[in-house]
Amino acid sequence: MTSVTGLNNNEYQIARGKALNRNVGVDKTCDFVKADFMKMPFPDNSFDAVYAIEATCHAPDAVGCYKEIYRVLKPGQCFAAYEWCMTNSYDSHNKEHQKIKAEIELGNGLPDIRVTGQCLEALKQAGFEVIWEKDLAADSPIPWYLPLDKSSFSLSSFRLTAVGRLVTRNMVMALEYVGLAPKGSQRVQAFLEKAAEGLVDGGKKDIFTPMYFFLARKPHLE
């Protein structure tokens, strides 16, 4: 029987995942393990496939993370992932680019965001064969950052518009003042706003992508 094992280090997210699995009736075949993806509690050559969506970008060491994935993957099988990356248009000496990158890192809890080429090199150092890779944002007919762009208005994304953010900001302030929101909520809300601005600016300047996809394979044993 096919089964899926989710890996997460956050108890709340695991509880939510298990509840959602029960709701759709897949809790018998889908489960979660609380662990660190830099040191997974699984034997070598355990899995038929591994995928990660906007997850391994949080790894402090890409090579170490990919090596651990390589270890638990069976020979001849594949690892697919979406990574958050800086593109080749990113200039590490450009102060505006540096500011945008820092805003994204701070608001999303990321270490030093890697350039796409660094991800590829890390995969190769870990032992993978890269089958296919592409920044899928490049061909997207709709900009990925549009829902976060406060200059774009729609009823579904009202809270992300300039007016919506002002309303949210005042609500958080009021809730924190009366004690219904924990202390520090305003500060968190503020840097999340800055993160959204960084994401939009990074997308518009084509220096950041949340849609860098790759498919890599662990070679067969000789």
Automatic annotation (TrEMBL):
<keyword id="KW-0808">Transferase</keyword>
<protein>
    <recommendedName>
        <fullName>Methyltransferase</fullName>
        <ecNumber>2.1.1.-</ecNumber>
    </recommendedName>
</protein>
<dbReference type="InterPro" id="IPR013705">
    <property type="entry name" value="Sterol_MeTrfase_C"/>
</dbReference>
<dbReference type="Pfam" id="PF08498">
    <property type="entry name" value="Sterol_MT_C"/>
</dbReference>
<dbReference type="InterPro" id="IPR029063">
    <property type="entry name" value="SAM-dependent_MTases_sf"/>
</dbReference>
<dbReference type="GO" id="GO:0003838">
    <property type="term" value="F:sterol 24-C-methyltransferase activity"/>
</dbReference>
<keyword id="KW-0489">Methyltransferase</keyword>
<keyword id="KW-1207">Sterol metabolism</keyword>
<dbReference type="InterPro" id="IPR013216">
    <property type="entry name" value="Methyltransf_11"/>
</dbReference>
<keyword id="KW-0753">Steroid metabolism</keyword>
<keyword id="KW-0444">Lipid biosynthesis</keyword>
<comment type="pathway">
    <text>Alkaloid biosynthesis; vindoline biosynthesis.</text>
</comment>
<dbReference type="GO" id="GO:0009820">
    <property type="term" value="P:alkaloid metabolic process"/>
</dbReference>
<feature type="domain" description="SAM-dependent methyltransferase Erg6/SMT-type">
    <location>
        <begin position="1"/>
        <end position="219"/>
    </location>
</feature>
<dbReference type="InterPro" id="IPR050447">
    <property type="entry name" value="Erg6_SMT_methyltransf"/>
</dbReference>
<keyword id="KW-0443">Lipid metabolism</keyword>
<keyword id="KW-0752">Steroid biosynthesis</keyword>
<dbReference type="Pfam" id="PF08241">
    <property type="entry name" value="Methyltransf_11"/>
</dbReference>
<dbReference type="InterPro" id="IPR030384">
    <property type="entry name" value="MeTrfase_SMT"/>
</dbReference>
<dbReference type="GO" id="GO:0032259">
    <property type="term" value="P:methylation"/>
</dbReference>
<dbReference type="GO" id="GO:0016126">
    <property type="term" value="P:sterol biosynthetic process"/>
</dbReference>
<comment type="similarity">
    <text>Belongs to the class I-like SAM-binding methyltransferase superfamily. Erg6/SMT family.</text>
</comment>
<keyword id="KW-0949">S-adenosyl-L-methionine</keyword>
<keyword id="KW-0756">Sterol biosynthesis</keyword>
<dbReference type="GO" id="GO:0005783">
    <property type="term" value="C:endoplasmic reticulum"/>
</dbReference>
<comment type="pathway">
    <text>Steroid biosynthesis; sterol biosynthesis.</text>
</comment>
